[in-house]
Amino acid sequence: xxxxxxxxxxxxxxxxxxxxxxxxxxxxxxxxxxxxxxxxxxxxxxxxxxxxxxxxxxxxxxxxxxxxxxxxxxxxxxxxxxxxxxxxxxxxxxxxxxxxxxxxxxxxxxxxxxxxxxxxxxxxxxxxxxxxxxxxxxxxxxxxxxxxxxxxxxxxxxxxxxxxxxxxxxxxxxxxxxxxxxxxxxxxxxxxxxxxxxxxxxxxxxxxxxxxxxxxxxxxxxxxxxxxxxxxxxxxxxxxxxxxxxxxxxxxxxxxxxxxxxxxxxxxxxxxxx
Length: 274
Fold this sequence. Notes:
Blueprint: H1 14-47, H2 52-65, H3 70-93, H4 101-139, H5 142-148, H6 153-188, H7 196-206, H8 209-235, H9 243-273
Helix pairs in contact: 1-6, 2-6, 3-4, 3-6, 4-6, 4-7, 4-8, 4-9, 6-8, 8-9
């Protein structure tokens, strides 16, 4: 007997099915992260009433994420500030716009590169560490042990890391901006020597409240994104120990993408508001 197979012209192609599946997985992951974020925010209030163990996790997270990253952040900030000054000053001088170097430094270092590069430093150091640590706890059944004794793993494990990374990125952004401007001051002495009072006074004159606010908002947003992505990727593993390094790699990639996307959106919003 012959069978006839009818193909509907409206059935999706294999490529379309892959795209639809990928989009469905993306939105499902996005909704899960949003839900997890709201759950963590609810746990922040209860965190203050936790014992010393949870507070110690917070302190250690800030120590690892902020304090131990100061050296690399200072080196990178000074280099960025010097490069922007050495390239920007001669270029602006060619158009008799030397005075605009101060607004250029505020825009590049304080508003744009400061928060983003500080986020990249923390992603490279802390996102991998948090994701692999969380994944190791899942594989070793440590998370299940917390639940079995009545300890909420969100409040005990996720909240202190969320707060630690967010606070650390906020402070590292300030540190990066200060050292970036110091690096530009050192570099400008080789082009047109200026007293420190004149240089930093001109910077303060060009530092507007909106620029400062958008830098702060970016740093806080990036800190929240990095911590939530790292924690959720780590907790998403199953039982195999081979999933632990994969969770770390996935958290780094996702955090990079989301920080860049949010940075672009906030920069566009800033330009629309001024």
